Amino acid sequence: MIKVGIIGGSGYTGGELIRLLLNHPKTEIDFVFSTTRAGKAVTAAHADLLGQTDLLFTGTVNPDVDAVFLCLGHGNSTKFLEEHSFSEQTKIIDLSNDFRLQNDAEWNNLKFVYGLPELNRSKIIEATAIANPGCFATAIQLALLPLSKNGFLENDVHINAVTGSTGAGVGLSATSHFSWRNNNVSWYKPFTHQHLGEIGESLASYGNVIGKLHFLPNRGNFTRGILATAYTNFDGTLEEAQELFKDYYTDAAFTHVSDEPLHLKQVVNTNQCHIHLHKHEELLLVTSAIDNLLKGASGQAVQNLNLMFNLKEQTGLQLKAGVF
Ligand SMILES: NC(=O)c1ccc[n+]([C@@H]2O[C@H](COP(=O)([O-])OP(=O)(O)OC[C@H]3O[C@@H](n4cnc5c(N)ncnc54)[C@H](OP(=O)(O)O)[C@@H]3O)[C@@H](O)[C@H]2O)c1
């Protein structure tokens, strides 16, 4: 069994990892570290796990675990690694944005690989440290990578995406307060969202010219999931675009191209990314849908763990969507 530790266990991505790893046939949770709840039952923070685990949160780490997941807010992963060390064999998977950009990827003796399996599968298999991608970044890159690889992204790209409230973490804020969020929708950080950096680096990695990315993020009044749309000029036919995408994702374990228009619920509670293509005059519209906490965070982190430990990529991730 692979012994794992989870840091930031009372948050949303931490909770989702505990759920996944308790049901993973090859992992054993060694400890769940919490800054605020050491000594308390994990089920006190994650009530749905009642009867499934007797684990208590801890305030100390076991440095000899096989893998550790950092589920902390931005900047806190670096701080945590400065204050706690792990054995040279321990593989690290960080869910924050501390190590995602190429300029941040080397830290002390660690070299972080950007953990998007559809882009970096072979590098992930060899990696000892992973920078797990952002949630919007995952949905948007999966919508655009086949175009960037084949040199079809030289024109401007207009991107619109809506996320559920869990994207903002467990802490209560003005925009996650029920009275504000319910029956409401609004945009934020227009054209300046922090995920544009990692998206730009991945799209540019094939060496082709990339047009400007205009990204408008929205907050939706649901709890889970991201529906993203991106459109750009495309000279070819719809069938040519579909072939391009299906080719690119032939071997992808969780990313699939659908001929039918998407609805968010078909991927919520799963590690899937579904993609749909539509052509209107010269424009190609690409839609992608993911669960922000699974393919956008903890599910992708487990997918990366599976690759790093030479397990079948789908291990522990065959999940059921809550369609109705
Ligand atoms: N939510 C998403 O959909 C999503 C998707 C992709 C990536 N991410 C990234 O994953 C990371 C975790 O996200 P999350 O949604 O799980 O966040 P969260 O719900 O806010 O949980 C973060 C946890 O970090 C711990 N923590 C430790 N030091 C802290 C400090 N100084 N300030 C605040 N919290 C501290 C807390 O848990 P303890 O008290 O138990 O230590 C807290 O519950 C973030 O970097 C986020 O950007 C999130």
TrEMBL record:
Keywords recorded for this protein, A-Z: Amino-acid biosynthesis, Arginine biosynthesis, Cytoplasm, NADP, Oxidoreductase
InterPro entries, per database record: AGPR (IPR050085), AGPR_AS (IPR023013), AGPR_dimerisation_dom (IPR058924), AGPR_type-1 (IPR000706), NAD(P)-bd_dom_sf (IPR036291), Semialdehyde_DH_NAD-bd (IPR000534)
Protein name: N-acetyl-gamma-glutamyl-phosphate reductase
Gene encoding the protein: argC
Pathway recorded for this protein: Amino-acid biosynthesis; L-arginine biosynthesis; N(2)-acetyl-L-ornithine from L-glutamate: step 3/4
Active-site residues from the entry: 135
UniProt xrefs under NCBIfam families: argC
Species in which this protein is naturally found: Flagellimonas spongiicola
Any Pfam family the entry gives: Semialdhyde_dhC_1
Residues in Semialdehyde dehydrogenase NAD-binding domain copies: 3-127
Reactions it catalyzes: N-acetyl-L-glutamate 5-semialdehyde + phosphate + NADP(+) = N-acetyl-L-glutamyl 5-phosphate + NADPH + H(+)
Subcellular location per the Swiss-Prot or TrEMBL entry: Cytoplasm
SMART domains with a match to the protein in the record: Semialdhyde_dh
HAMAP family (alphabetical): ArgC_type1
EC id: 1.2.1.38
Function: Catalyzes the NADPH-dependent reduction of N-acetyl-5-glutamyl phosphate to yield N-acetyl-L-glutamate 5-semialdehyde.
Family the entry assigns: Belongs to the NAGSA dehydrogenase family. Type 1 subfamily.
Main localization, broad class: cytoplasm
